[in-house]
Specification:
The protein contains six helices and no strands. The radius of gyration is 17 Å and the shape is globular. Its main location: membrane.
């Protein structure tokens, strides 16, 4: 029951970000689904691996895939779906704790949280970049624009 509540809350959260970011009204359900599916991927990977960084990477790749798929269906840029869908994965809590520990003078704990924050942010970037690059490569391959070396 907790997982279903998390997914519904995530749908509402991402839908709200889609409205805030002025996504077209016809795409709002797809925007919400992008965030919800990615959060489901995060929860599944978290249960299987117990690694926040790897789970974030899997969820970021899921956001990228959903963004590319929904972009084709809605005839919109993938960034409409990716920007709102990625927001629940942003490492706000580790960044907060990094600053908290640094201000308190607990530098070792602060640096640990900083490294964790950077690893999560890197996992998000890398996951989106891999899917975006693969989608572009596939599109060029499909359209016959890929030049042979």
């Amino acid at each position: 029951m907790r997982i279903i509540l998390d997914l519904v809350a995530n749908f509402i959260l991402v839908l709200g970000f889609g409205i805030l970011l002025q996504a077209p009204k016809s795409s709002l359900i797809s925007v919400g689904l992008t965030g919800t599916i990615s959060w489901g991927g995060f929860l599944l990977a978290q249960n299987l691996t117990n690694s926040i960084v790897f789970s974030t990477f899997i969820a970021a790749m899921t956001v990228g895939v959903c963004g590319e798929i929904f972009a084709r269906f809605n005839k919109l840029p993938a960034t409409v779906f990716i920007v709102a869908g990625i927001l629940p994965l942003v490492p706000g809590v580790p960044a907060y704790y990094m600053m908290y520990h640094m201000i308190k003078g607990e530098y070792l704990q602060g640096v640990e949280n900083a490294i964790n924050t950077l690893m999560i942010a890197g996992a998000i970037s890398f996951g989106i970049a891999i899917v975006g690059g693969a989608a572009k490569y596939y599109s060029e391959l499909k359209n016959g624009h890929l030049e042979e070396e």
